[in-house]
Design goal:
Mean pLDDT of chain A: 87
Low-confidence stretches of chain B: none
Mean pLDDT of chain B: 88
Low-confidence stretches of chain A: 18-23
Number of strands of chain A: 15
Structural class of chain B: mainly alpha
Helix content of chain B: over 70%
CATH architecture of the largest domain in chain A: 3-Layer(aba) Sandwich
Structural class of chain A: alpha/beta
Strand content of chain B: under 5%
Largest sheet of chain A: 7 strands, mixed
Number of helices of chain B: 13
Oligomer: heterodimer
Number of helices of chain A: 13
Shape of chain A: elongated
CATH topology of the largest domain in chain A: Rossmann fold
CATH superfamily of the largest domain in chain A: Response regulator
Largest interface: A-B, 34 and 38 residues
Strand order of the largest sheet of chain B: 1-2
Radius of gyration of chain A: 23 Å
Order of helices and strands of chain B: HHHHEHEHHHHHHHH
Shape of chain B: globular
Chain lengths: ~400, ~300
Amino acid sequence: MKRLSLVMSLLFLVTLLTAPLSAADNLEISIPLPLTGSQAKFGEMEKKSYIIAADEINAAGGIKGKKIVLEFEDSQGKPEISRAIAEKLIDVKKQPVIIGDYSSSCSKAIAAVAEERKTPYLVVTGAADDITQQNYKYVFRLNPSSAYYSSGLMSFMSEVVKPKSIAILYESSDFGTSGAKDMENQAAKTGMKVLVNEKYEKGAVDFKPVLSKLKATRPDVIYMVSYVMDAALLMKQIKELRIDAKLFAGGAAGFAIPEFIDNAKDAADYVVTSTLWSSQSSYPGAKEYAEKYKKMNGDYPSYHGAEAYSALFILKDTLERAKSWSSEDIRTAMKATDMMTAFGPIKFEDKDGYQNQNFMDTLVLQVIKGEHQTIWPKKYASAKYIYPIPTWRERR
Amino acid sequence: MTSVAIEVFLQTLIAGLLLGGLYALIGLGMTLIMGVMKIINLAHGELMMVGMYIAYWMFVLFNIDPYLSVFIATPILFFLGIALQKFLINPVLKVEAILPENQVILTVGIGMVLANLATIFFTSDYRSTPVSYATNAFYLSDYWKASPIELSLSVPWSVSFILAVIITISLWFFLARTDTGKSIRATAQDTDAALLMGVNVKLMRVVTFGIGSGLVGAAGCLFLPIYYLFPSLGGQFTLIAFVITILGGLGSTIGAIIGGLILGVFESMTATYIGMGWAPVGRFVIFVVCLIFLPGGVASLLKRKKLGK
């Protein structure tokens, strides 16, 4: 055992000695991501986005003259592996700052290590509220926490629609349940009456029974949290039953991706949905990034990709402003971040029980003429919202 | 009851009957195979998935309407069923094994292979055929202006239902009137007697498996315009078919039709009056209640009545 560790440490020494020689003008950054396992789809998307960002930064001269060299560590979506990767990066590779990983649980594991080792960590996609509620000094988060996901939709509703009642339909998964619960709380806060609150099992064929019950209660808003095929099926059957509400709203996910419109066709018209980001966002660089991504991979990225893409620019901005590249100076510089990215404005604030959290407006999309348009907040809108929406009878 | 309550009830009933008609068609194929071969075909839902993919690609590649694909998918599934029976299930039927139901286990394997092949060839993406009439519907108020309630009847659901009824009737006609049909029924009732009467039992088994597969392939085509499609969709429909087969009374055609309708209506009523999350629970409540109190299914009720006369 002793001999093994001796060999190991010798090997490390050799790598440490040789690495700086070859990489004198390179900045090596290792990013933990789930590249295998059930979250691999998102890990892949983020990996590609990081690479796009690194190429752009390098083409423009790198960071203080140093080229970024990205490496990816597979965390498999498992917190214990994420933790081990973070320890390796900090203790062995002496990387002064960590970014990345996908899920909330993995981000949480890395955050604990980073805080303990006093190394700044930028959370890119983990959305669980408590990651930035632990009084961590070294943990920053660029994406809004999940409690703020529907904030844009809520402000659109309270300023434009002014609904008095709401019906909630949601898929009986973790994601659907938490989305519905969040909306329930928001409704209680704004004085909306929840008339129907129903969950359904994924893969349901026929929503018409529950929809006709919902129709009889005449809600102002119908809010649905679903994945893509259920979202399309729901809107199609709502059209069939001619259920008229002031607003049809979706909770991101299934409603916010182009497949929704492809499948629901004209039944998707005027449906609004909350989202963190869209490929038509008017943020500088958003469209260019989305187009570049689509050209390389054939599809538009979701907001996860935009978060990853922007994370590297935040890192660049921070490193350029930092006095030295020690963890302490990087932390100070990151704390002072105030910049615009393709994902939106980034500023790390301490408020509402959060520390180093980026608060931003989440967007509202509406399907207008068969396309998703950003309609809210007004300053980022790509089209004027359509409200009141025509009834089903008027549409034909 | 107020007019609103009546509207909700009637709309739920309509939805339940339409769904039940389609369920019946799915259940029929399994019931038929169960009756003749005394095995539960657990690859049933996967065969439906194959039918749906055929209809999907016919639509995407040649712009053939899913409803017309019934005439394409049914024969393909018929021959696929025959091949499965001849080359996979029959050899296993002959083998003396420790497990008495090893053919059933074989069908589970066939189902898995089909689902995974679909994943390899078509990826696990969700697909649907965006037919132009997908959301068209008839409205009561369009025909009767003064109607106090509004009811709607979806065009694709109605067409699927009517086609399901037509297919069911022609199956019934086939079983009741043709020689092959009679031979199948004879095999189902008593294999040994049928053998003694000169029925080619082996051939009948092969044909029955083909017909059962063809039926569920047709059901897949009818489902495509109103639902969507992904490789692992089979399991949930195998379960539905299984419940219907038990409810209808293992092997009874009329029992399966009534069982399908009961299940459809019951599921819809559960969704409206208890909660949609409870609909799958309702399905299994029916299943268990039926096993305990009515082990012979609907068919045993029908028989009892006949004897009483």
